[in-house]
UniProtKB/TrEMBL annotation:
PROSITE patterns: ABC_TM1F, ABC_TRANSPORTER_1, ABC_TRANSPORTER_2. This is Canalicular multispecific organic anion transporter 2. Belongs to the ABC transporter superfamily. ABCC family. Conjugate transporter (TC 3.A.1.208) subfamily. It comes from Blattamonas nauphoetae. Keywords: ATP-binding, Membrane, Nucleotide-binding, Signal, Transmembrane, Transmembrane helix, Transport. The lineage of its organism: Eukaryota, Metamonada, Preaxostyla, Oxymonadida, Blattamonas. Gene3D superfamilies: ABC transporter type 1, transmembrane domain, P-loop containing nucleotide triphosphate hydrolases. CDD domains: ABC_6TM_ABCC_D2, ABCC_MRP_domain2. It is a multi-pass membrane protein. InterPro entries: AAA+_ATPase, ABC1_TM_dom, ABC1_TM_sf, ABC_transporter-like_ATP-bd, ABC_transporter-like_CS, ABC_transporter_C-like, ABCC_6TM_D2, P-loop_NTPase. It comes from the Eukaryota.
């Protein structure tokens, strides 16, 4: 919101809240014959009625503006938070517990959307009303300020003392909520519950559940007890004010003025107690905004911008070159690729194999720029315990090397342009909640005829056609209404529709049966004849018909040759892998 509009809104809010104490003050003048003697009794009643109508109209307009402002603020906060989290590098998700991220969306965002703005208006209204009650009494008895102002100072002191403790307790409560959400998410997602039961870890799960809930309950209970403490002392201060008003009124006020003063002091007492609680609650809610604002504006982000422009037809050949690629997933970890050099020509089918931890999948992280090789694009890191940004060690050796596609250094291109140009078929097939059409064609560029044609290629046409809504049939969460093999075939169809010159398969047949594996291999041979295909192998027989085979060993490129040459060499690492599988 622009600063000018914000100032106007605050002025409008002050005017709205000022009318109530003015109405109370005017009510005391109605029965007085000495105040405004030129106005008749009915004129005074009419003015009081006008003030009541003004309160109604102003409050109605404020409600409409508040509703619009709250909806706009909620949309902006959520979109900024979502955009920031979605553009974080993979290292952020590796080092940040999922519960901490979920806590921002399910804990902090609702606090901001539902309570923060309304509490802000209430606090402004109460401060205006509180000061207004002092002014009402002081108009007729000016030296009443000798009691009213010290009482106001006592309220401020109580507020400052309590607010500091309450704000920190609220922050601790928000932090302690993240492990609870993480624990719950780990249990219900994936094979969490199945694993717990399989290994008989129910009691250990309960102990951890009790511990994280106890850690959450301590600041929660202290926060609630603090509210009672503040209420007690606010009541004592209010009693002092009420006693002072009675003593002054007894000696220096007539009946009409004293009645207004008593009403004002009673209102002051009630408002003082509420004001303490609401002001502290507002500051506590601001910790939620502070946490959301940190995630929305200060999280590490993937590299934006680019130095080079490429035509829409890029890449045309599909040549892929790794030039002395050496990187680690994040600072403080060992290098996973240690100076890898190779060149793949457009249209080649490359098989990648090696033992567990050899660096096969690490090739993909660099290819998709999930890890940046250029140090100037490297994002900052998040401390796993505190969640705050930390600087990397300047003495640590940085990532290095280049990856070129059709001779273009991909680190100089827009990161989204690079990822759109390379299709991936992952080991765990990923389907999204939505229609089959959406899952096949995420960009929405393909016609229905083309989608049906691709479904025919992957032998899924009959299955989809048998569904009640065809392409508009809904895919359950995670693709639960399809088998693992069917989900993998749909992912293949998605890659075919993307029509990228470079296609990567990360052990795509590891979780499917032999029959589905045969379908996938046939699809690769028929549909990816002109594309460059990089297959990370789970079964060695799936890469035997590759143009060349790459053998990775502890982050190094051990061998890179045709299958025939590798098998012909009895001392090759590839032969060693074959023999280990046979045994």
């Amino acid at each position: 919101m622009p600063l000018g509009l914000m100032v106007l809104f605050l002025v409008y809010e002050v005017i709205c809240e000022s009318i109530n104490p003015v109405s109370t003050w005017w009510m005391g003048k109605i029965s007085s014959t000495t105040s405004f003697p030129s106005l008749t009794f009915w004129w005074k009643i009419g003015i009081y009625g006008f003030l009541g109508v003004a309160v109604f109209v102003l409050m109605l307009l404020r409600a409409l503006m508040t509703a619009k402002a709250t909806a706009r603020s909620a949309r902006i906060n959520h979109n900024q938070l979502l955009d920031s989290v979605m553009n974080c590098p993979s290292s952020f998700f590796d080092t940040t517990p999922m519960g901490r991220i979920l806590n921002r969306f399910t804990g902090d965002i609702p606090q901001i959307d539902q309570f923060l703005f309304s509490r802000f208006l209430q606090v402004i209204g109460m401060w205006v009303g509180l000061i207004g009650q002092i002014v009402i009494v002081s108009v007729d008895t000016p030296w009443f300020l000798a009691i009213g102002l010290p009482i106001l100072v006592l309220y401020m002191g109580l507020l400052i003392l309590y607010a500091r403790v309450s704000r920190n307790l609220q922050r601790l409560e928000s932090i302690a909520r993240s492990p609870v959400l993480s624990h719950f998410n780990e249990t219900i997602s994936g094979a969490g519950l199945t694993t717990i039961r399989s290994f008989g870890r129910e009691e250990a799960w309960k102990e951890k559940f009790h511990k994280v809930n106890d850690d959450l309950s301590v600041p929660f209970m202290l926060f609630r007890e603090g509210q009672k403490w503040a209420s007690l002392y606010a009541a004592v201060i209010s009693s002092l004010l009420f006693t002072g008003v009675m003593l002054i009124g007894w000696f220096f006020m007539d009946a009409s003025k004293l009645s207004v003063a008593i009403m004002s002091s009673m209102t002051f007492s009630m408002m003082g107690l509420q004001l303490i609680n609401m002001t502290v609650d507002l500051e506590s809610k601001m910790t939620s905004f502070e946490r959301v604002d940190f995630y929305a504006s200060k999280l590490p982000q993937e590299a934006k911008g680019h130095e080079l422009e490429v035509p829409d037809s890029w890449p045309e050949r599909g040549d892929v070159t790794f030039d002395r690629v050496k990187y680690k997933y994040r600072p403080g970890l060992p290098f996973v690729l240690k100076g890898v050099d190779f060149e793949i020509h457009g249209g080649e089918k490359i098989g990648v194999c090696g033992r567990t931890g050899a660096g096969k999948s690490s090739l993909l992280f660099a290819l998709f720029r999930l890890v940046e090789l250029d140090p100037k694009h490297a994002p900052k890191m998040i401390d796993m315990k505190t969640g705050f940004l930390v600087d990397s060690d300047p003495n640590e050796e940085p990532n290095s090397g280049r990856i070129l596609i059709d001779g273009v250094d991909i680190s100089k291109l827009d990161i989204h342009r690079v990822r759109r140009s390379v299709a991936i078929i992952p080991q765990d097939p990923t389907l999204f909640t939505g229609t089959i059409r959406y899952n096949m064609d995420l960009a929405g560029h393909a016609s229905d005829d083309r989608i049906w044609e691709v479904l025919e290629m992957i032998e899924m046409r009959d299955i989809v056609a048998g569904l009640p809504l065809g392409l508009d049939s809904q895919v359950a969460e995670g693709g639960g209404n399809f088998s693992a093999g069917q989900r993998q075939l749909l992912c293949f169809g998605r890659a075919i529709l993307n029509n990228c010159r470079v296609v990567v398969m990360d052990e795509a047949t590891a979780n499917v049966d032999v029959e589905t594996d045969a379908k996938i291999q046939r699809t690769i041979r028929e549909q990816f004849r002109e594309q460059t295909v990089i297959v990370i192998a789970h079964r060695l027989n799936t890469i035997m018909d590759s143009t060349r085979i790459m053998v990775m060993d502890q982050g190094y490129l051990s061998e890179f040759d045709t299958p025939e040459n590798l098998k012909a060499n009895p001392d090759s690492a590839f032969n060693s892998l074959i023999q280990s599988l046979n045994h």
